[in-house]
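Notes from hallway chat w/ T.B., transcribed later so I don't forget. T.B. wanted the structure written out for a chain they're using in a teaching module, and asked if we could keep both sequence and structure tokens in one place. Agreed to drop them here.
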Amino acid sequence: MHQPGRAAEIKAIGIGKSFGTFRALHDLTLDIGRGEFLALLGPSGSGKTTFLMILAGFLPPSDGRLFSDGEDITNRPAELRSAGMVFQGYALFPHMSVEANIAFPLKVRKVPAAEIKERVAAMIERVGLKGHARKLPSQLSGGQQQRVALARALVFQPGVLLLDEPFSALDKSLRGQMQAEVKRLHEETGTTFVFVTHDQSEALALASRIAIFNHGELLQVGTPGEVYDRPASRFVAEFLGEINMLPLTDVRKDNGSMTGLCEDRPVTLRGSQDVTGDALLAVRPEYMTIRNEASPGENGVSATTVGTTYLGSATKLDLLTKQGTKLSVSVPNDVAANALGSSNPIWLTWPAERGILLAR
């Protein structure tokens, strides 16, 4: 068992889960550091929530072992694990007041009444619910209910806090407020947080590391910067936001760099990605610059504008290269006006270090 208030270090080794003939998780091995904020990110049905339920003890794995602080907890029931849980639908007791909801896990653990009163009061203060202690959940807003759920999960000082898409029912403005609140609580408590989401921007903003799932497989784990700027696969690259994909031919290693042909124009890529022959060059739109022409030796591709979308502070240009590759880039409105005023094809250029080499 974890000591109360001590962040957990978790190790999953070869975790698999089957439901009949359906394989929901495949041989997942993952270390979760003590006190880190890990986001489990992926589309619906990717296996992220299944893994969270295994961490919580609500589902037994079909294969593999699970360790917490070096102890094997694979078969330990949920009530004997030091894990707090925040559910998608909050799961508050409707007949209990805010303070009674928060006190519940402490009463179950037979904490002395005086200590319960003190810890509940402190937690109500911490999550910004002062003045609401005697209210029922039905008398609270969605954001306030979410704060109660967070307080209830944190009040017994769990080794790990598990959050299953807790903001999905909130509107955009309130969602942003609660994201900031969760980040603050993580920094203040130092508890290990494991957070399930399918919202890429949410994962990038909150997590210290992101684990990306698809079809029951763990595809990549890294810091937000690592998975965004150096995705390991086309799926990860496209799932994490806007990205342009350009076909490459004749990819080869050349004096420590990678070179290839993009629409018959030589391009250079930094790094030592182990991809040769035909490949894909992925470039985030924000790293592309519009030019009237590209300098000799500069990475670039010519394209014509085929559509625009006004975004307020910027304009999105939809472009088509000579060989029919679709690209998009958002630029300041004055840059877009100049590009649209030119009858000639424009050039899109990018730094070599911003090109991502991927297998086709």
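Follow-up for T.B.: The CA atoms of residues 293 and 347 lie 6 Å apart. Might be a good example for the class.
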